[in-house]
Amino acid sequence: MFAALRRWLSRTPDARDDDIPAALWARVEAGLPCLHGLPAETRARLRDLARRFLAEKEFHGARGMVLSDEIMLSIALQACLPILRVGLEGYRHWVGIVVYPGDFVVDREVMDEDGVVHNDHHTLLGEAWDGGPVIVSWAPAGGPAGVNVVIHEFAHTLDMLNGAADGFPPLPADMNRHAWAQAFEAAYEDLCARVDHGMPTVLDPYASEHPAEFFAVASEAFFERPDALRDTYPAVYAQLGALFGVDPSSSSVASTTP
Q1: What is the Cα–Cα distance from 216 to 228, expressed in whole angstroms?
Q2: Nearest C-alpha neighbor of 80 from the set 20, 134, 16
Q3: DSSP readout, 136-161?
Q4: What is the CATH number of the domain that holds 237?
Q5: How many domains is the chain partitioned into structurally?
Q6: What angle do the packed helices 69-79 and 2-9 form, to 10 degrees?
Q7: Which Pfam families match (predicted)?
Q8: Half-sphere exposure (CA, 13 Å, Cβ side) for 76?
C-alpha cells in the first residue's frame, strides 16, 4: 500500500481524489471524529486539499517509524483543516513533515537573567519551525478528548506565515484585524485569569502560555470540540470560522441536515 500511495501521489495535481481508493478514504475518515460534522461540500474540498498536500510535502518517519498510507492520509486530512479557506498557499513556506511514534525529547540551551546558560530537556508532542519542518507525534484514534497535535502544530505554521508565531495569522481581506485582536485578547485574558485562580477551563491551560499557544489550542478545539468553544468564547469561534471557512458546530450541522 505504501508503494501504491506513492504512485498515486506522483500523478499531476489535477488528478481526481478517486485515484486514492474509496476504501482508504473511508477507513481514514472514519477514524477522525473532527471530520464527521463537516458539510459534504467541505469534506470534498478537504479531500482535494489533502491529496495535493500529499503530492507537495515530504514525509519522514523518526526513530525508525514506518509511515503507512493510513498515517500519511490521516495527517494530511487533519493538517488541511486550518487551510480549508486559504488553501495550500497557507503552507507555502515549508516542505518537510517529521513523524515520531510517540513524544520526543529536545535539548535546548537557555540563558537565565544572570547570563548563565542551562541545558534544558523538554518532552514534546509536536513542534513547528519557521521554514519547516513540522514535527508531530503519531497518536492513533482514542487519545485525549479535544486534543489534536496535528491541528495544533499546523495552526502554528499558518500563524508563522507573516512572521514569528504570535496568535495573529494573516487574515483574508474581508476579515477585520481589530475584531480579531479584540476577540482573542479578551478570551486570552479570561483564560489566563482562570488558570491563575485555579478555575476550570474549556481550553487546555497550556493555551495560557502565550497568545500563539492560545491560537493553536483554540484551533484544536474549533474542530474537536466546536460547541464548547462556541459557547465559551463565541467571538473567538466566529473569527476562527471566518478564517477557516467552516462552521463545524452542531447547530450548523443540524441546519444543513435534510
Answers
A1: 16
A2: 134
A3: EE---SS-STT--HHHHHHHHHHHGG
A4: 3.40.390.10
A5: 1
A6: 50
A7: Peptidase_M90 (PF06167)
A8: 29
